[in-house]
Specification:
- By secondary structure, this protein is mostly helical.
- The protein has a single domain, classed as bsu32300-like (Four Helix Bundle (Hemerythrin (Met), subunit A), Up-down Bundle), CATH 1.20.120.
- It is 78% helix and 0% strand.
- The chain contains seven helices and no strands.
- Helix 4 runs antiparallel to helix 5.
- It is elongated and about 45 Å long.
- The mean pLDDT is 92.
Length: 137
């Protein structure tokens, strides 16, 4: 059975992470890229935001019996197949998962410009996914 408190706690954390990421959005590219505390913190909070979304997806999929998850990208596919997200949002989520894997597994290869671009252009995708899961409350 879906437990709203599981989703609620994660939605609240995601909102916290988004507020932090929004602050980093205000820096000029050069200032952001030359400060390891800024880009390192932004990387980490992006990773946490994506992990939080994946965690909510895992809970919903398991509790609603939506299918089997063999890889993180299955979260997006299963939610799209069951009508919770659009194909476009599925694609963007899969790209987020790909980004998340870089700081986790290939941390030496993180491109700071990509982190900056995500902050400037993709936070609304995280908000859209937050809203999908907020509907389960």
């Amino acid at each position: 059975m879906l437990r709203p408190e599981v989703i609620r706690k994660r939605v609240q954390k995601l909102e916290e992470y988004l507020a932090i990421l929004e602050r980093y959005r205000g820096y000029l590219r050069e200032e952001f890229l030359r400060d390891p505390e800024k880009y390192g913190s932004a990387e980490r909070f992006l990773q946490l935001a994506i992990e939080t979304i994946n965690d909510m997806a895992s809970h919903v999929i398991a509790e609603q019996g939506l299918g089997e998850v063999n890889a993180n990208r299955d979260y997006a596919r299963l939610l799209r197949e069951h009508g919770y997200i659009t194909p476009a949002l599925e694609e963007r989520w899969i790209r987020m998962i790909g980004f998340r894997n870089i700081p986790v597994h290939n941390y030496l290869d993180v491109d700071r410009d990509i982190v900056f671009d995500i902050l400037q252009n993709d936070l609304d995708d995280l908000r859209a996914l937050r809203d999908v899961f907020a509907h389960f409350l």
